[in-house]
Specification:
globular; 18 helices; 28 strands; alpha+beta; 6-stranded mixed sheet
Length: 601
């Protein structure tokens, strides 16, 4: 069917259900960062292939809300579909709820109903939307209208086999994790888990169902005496079924979770309202108390605190990554431009070097290679038919990462390509402002209970003095051989109430972006570790950050006059660590290259 035919079919079902509008968000039942094609319903109904967007279809109009990153793409892909673009980054763009309330004046009084598939909304997201609509006299109805019409060529839910993630990598057994989770739950209460990273962590399983993140599409229900994994049986071979059974895990079909929840006899059920979908909530036996957790689930907090085996694995993954990065940057300077290069060929070459590393399985996200003005687009992704050729002089922003059995890496380096004498003073100034903020956060020391927003100013301070800032967060949590973005704590201006805890892994990535000119971002990963405080301490517990990423900074882009002696000492000490950890793994030519890059200032 064409997009026009799909929208027409949807409207037919809307009339049968008495709906005047239907919302199709660009989400899936597991709140995944990277969705399987099976759930790309927003793209199917509109023809828009961007990563972020929400479609609204009424009986006479169809609209797509997306942000400024996708305006040009949306304009091209929506041509001829009748779908109107709503530019949600613009200050005068109404929210979906406000638009529907304004539009509802044209609807019949008996049809003030808006439909959504509850699987695609978190419990809290559904509640918020319902309350916003009720404020305008509209009601929200849970109903899946896409499944009945998307019957041809709909991709299946991925069926890749799951595998055991061995304790030698995980650092803790499933039995131990289940015991801790049950202790954290109220007596006789069970926990419903839909987030794929939590499931993988809890049961020490991994898979290839999701791009860049080694997850298995499944649900889990943890009860006092039982743990049930709801997964397509075709994903579990006899050997892994035996392993799971030995760990006390019962297997049931993926779709059986709804009937199972309906038949529960527990006294209460705990939901993480931001991560569990509304359909699961509605499936619970109505006689059971359903408690929506307003704070992160116990699982999310436990998962974010890495044990010593996980942390040592992260450190080892960084060393393997460092070898790949050194070889890549050496190639970029000495070999790359003997043939024409683009943003995509650069990213592909980096992947080749990483793939040679021990325990490498995949990238941890789609590499961002932004040449000149493209680097100023924070979440830029080059496309084969629209990527920049790398030629002449300019700034290259490279944000990339790898998934290793030992851990997950994420690093951004900004480098100069071309004649060093052609580097503009403004580029050096911006690079050094970013580096100063990056170092200030890396050197932070703070008491237990500190939140990320209390540290964020450290990374911004030097830019703010110059009237410059950036809109993204300074630091996100990072999983262990899992999602590159992990909660519950982070480092950004928003007031996240979750404090930084010992064993959390964060990114440290301030940046400056000059539209149409260049982007500069510098990123390492850091671990929150106990701080060595002076003898004059009053007794509180203090933390500091251990930097674990191992890759040189481009000294050609530094304005040394802007750096304090303490900052220079920090850079020199960091580069000495890069050499100590990486040189033994390189050949003589690579060693000579890295020694030159890490020469003390």
């Amino acid at each position: 069917m064409t997009v026009l035919e799909r929208i027409s079919a949807l409207r037919g079902l809307m009339r049968e259900q008495g709906l005047s509008a239907y919302i199709v968000p660009g989400t899936d039942p597991h709140a995944s960062e990277y969705m399987a094609p099976h759930w790309m319903e927003m793209s199917w109904i509109t023809g828009f292939l961007g990563e972020t967007g929400t479609a609204v279809v009424t009986l006479d109009r169809a609209l797509l809300w997306t942000d400024s990153r996708y305006y040009l793409q949306a304009e091209a892909e929506l041509q001829g579909t009748s779908v109107e673009l709503m530019r949600e980054s613009d200050v005068d763009c109404p929210s979906i709820a406000d638009w529907l309330k304004a539009e509802s004046g044209k609807w019949k009084a008996e049809s003030l109903l808006v439909g959504v598939n509850p699987e695609m909304y978190s419990v809290n997201g559904y509640k918020k939307l319902r309350e916003e609509l009720e404020d305008g006299g509209l009601a929200l109805k849970s109903v899946d209208l896409i499944r009945p019409i998307w019957t041809e060529n709909r991709p299946d839910i991925p069926l890749t086999a799951l595998y055991e993630y061995e304790d030698k990598y995980a650092g803790e057994s499933v039995e131990s994790k289940l015991r801790r989770v049950r202790e954290a739950l109220a007596e006789k209460r069970c926990d419903v888990v839909a987030e794929l990273d939590e499931i993988g962590w809890l049961l020490n399983i991994r898979g290839k169902d999701v791009d860049y993140t080694p997850c298995v599409i499944a649900y889990v229900v943890v009860e006092k005496e039982r743990c049930t994994l709801f997964v397509d049986p075709r994903k579990v071979d006899k050997a892994n079924a035996k392993v799971l059974k030995a760990k006390g895990i019962t297997l049931r079909g993926y779709d059986e979770v709804f009937s199972y929840l309906n038949g529960l006899k527990a006294s209460g059920v705990l939901f993480d309202g931001n991560r569990v979908n509304e359909a699961l909530y509605e499936a619970i036996n109505p006689a059971i108390t359903r408690k929506v957790n307003v704070s992160p689930s116990p699982l999310q907090v436990m998962m974010s605190i890495k044990n010593e085996v996980e942390l040592n694995g992260e450190r080892e993954a960084m060393k393997v990554d460092a070898v790949a990065l050194t070889r890549f940057f050496m190639w970029l300077e000495k070999e790359a431009f003997k043939t024409p290069q683009t943003e995509i060929t650069i990213a592909e070459k980096l992947h080749e070097f990483r793939a040679l590393g021990k325990n490498f399985t995949d990238e941890s996200f789609c590499t961002i290679a932004g040449w000149k003005g493209n680097g100023a687009i924070v979440h830029y992704h080059a496309e084969p038919d629209a990527c920049a050729k790398i030629e002449g002089n300019g700034v290259l922003l490279l944000d990339s990462g790898g998934q290793y059995l030992d851990g997950t890496t994420d690093i951004t380096r900004t480098v100069w390509i071309g004649d060093e004498k052609a580097i503009p003073a403004q580029v050096k100034r911006d690079f050094t402002l970013v580096l100063k903020g990056h170092i200030a956060l890396a050197r932070a020391r703070f008491p237990k209970g500190t939140r990320g927003n209390q540290l964020d100013v450290l990374a911004h301070q030097f830019m703010w003095r110059e009237g410059v800032s950036y809109g993204h967060g300074t630091g996100h949590g990072v999983g262990h051989f899992m999602g590159c973005h992990e909660g519950p704590a982070n480092i950004r201006m928003d007031n996240n109430p979750n404090p930084i805890k010992e064993g959390n892994v964060f990114s440290d990535e301030p940046g400056i972006y000059r539209t149409g000119e260049y982007g500069i971002r510098t990123e390492n990963l850091v671990i929150a570790v106990p701080a060595k405080v002076s003898e004059h301490t009053t007794g509180e517990t203090y933390y500091e950050f251990e930097t674990i990423t191992l890759c040189f900074y481009d000294k050609r882009l530094m304005d040394f006059k802007m750096l304090t002696q303490e900052e220079i000492n920090w850079i020199n000490k960091y580069h000495a660590r890069v050499l100590a950890e990486t040189l033994p793994r390189l050949n003589k030519d690579e060693q000579a290259y890295l020694v030159e890059k890490c020469k003390p200032i």
